[in-house]
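Minutes, project huddle
Topic: does the predicted pose make sense with adenosine monophosphate bound?
PN asked that the exact inputs be recorded in the minutes so nobody has to dig through chat later. Recorded below.
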Amino acid sequence: MTYDPNNVFAKILRGEIPCKPVLETEYALAFHDINPQAPMHVLVIPKGAYVSMDDFSSHATPEEITGFIRAIGETARTLGVEADGYRVLSNVGLNGGQEVPHLHVHVFAGCNLGPMLSKRG
Ligand code: AMP
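Predicted holo structure (tokens), as shared on screen:
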């Protein structure tokens, strides 16, 4: 899939639309999800133009990968949820239910998050 520079997270990175930031580093931005699915629900995105985890893991530089992964842990520590635990999730493509075509991981926290997947069928 080709990267669409008009996706909503690209606009957030360019400062064209606002977000509620949690942290920003050289390689990543973390901000609160607009429609939280848990008491704490934060998105972490790389600053580079990558569609998904598939794209990122294939094409990002080692520095970008390290910077992004470190930002995920740093986000959890900034939220103060590392002791009680949290969930990191990234939807990829159609079957993954990905809506925004800029790589993002969801960080869910603040309660017992229950089973990993809802039952199908
Ligand atoms: P996904 O289904 O994994 O692509 O998740 C996309 C997420 O982006 C959803 O949880 C949305 O609520 C969230 N989202 C969409 N637009 C915004 C926005 N402007 N600011 C913050 N979160 C957003």
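Observations noted during the meeting:
- The two ends are 29 Å apart (CA to CA).
- The mean pLDDT is 96.
No decisions taken; revisit at the next huddle.
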